[in-house]
Specification:
This protein has helices at about 10-30, 50-60, 60-70, 80-95, 100-105, 120-125, 165-175, and strands at about 150, 160. It is an all-alpha fold. The N and C termini lie far apart (about 55 Å). Bound molecules: zinc ion (ZN) (2 copies).
Amino acid sequence: MRFQHAPDAHPMYQHVFVTHQQLAKLLIEHPAMRPNLQQTFSTPANSKNKVYFMWDFVLRTFPHLAAQVDPRDPISSPMFSDVVGRAWQAKFLTIDETGELNKMNASVGYSDDNGVEFTDEIKALANTLDNLPDGCAGCGKEKRDNGKLLMVCAKCKEEKYCSTDCQKKRWKSHKRHCEPAPATAA
Ligand SMILES: [Zn+2]
Ligand SMILES: [Zn+2]
């Protein structure tokens, strides 16, 4: 894949984009993908195994990101929470050791999972998919311009901002999700 994200994309967008791109590359280089390499995206796979499943799953996250998430203000795009949900799901299915993915695959007629395992490199990367950087919700900066710590939304205490500009920019979208933080037990 030779897609690139916008150079000024928000760090959270960049994180999701780059980790998914790297994971798709590792998956396609996995030996279990060899029988499928001659095929196009839309034809059924020769070997329907879990590596193929995850590759397909990871690639399908890109259209959501590319078409429906604003790279500079991802958190304000309703689709971004779906994308993060997919990232979490991809991570869970890849690192899970209880056989969830095998069961799921078996239930949809995938039958080539015998002896197929993800590499440690794939698992380690999958583990970071939903690990979003914790910066300004508006622009991604990790500090205020004066070097001080980010401001925190006074109501929910979840979103952080580098400036009142970023806070204002986010409010239109954030007010729909901003819930008062639970009172801490006295
Ligand atoms: Zn900011
Ligand atoms: Zn808030």
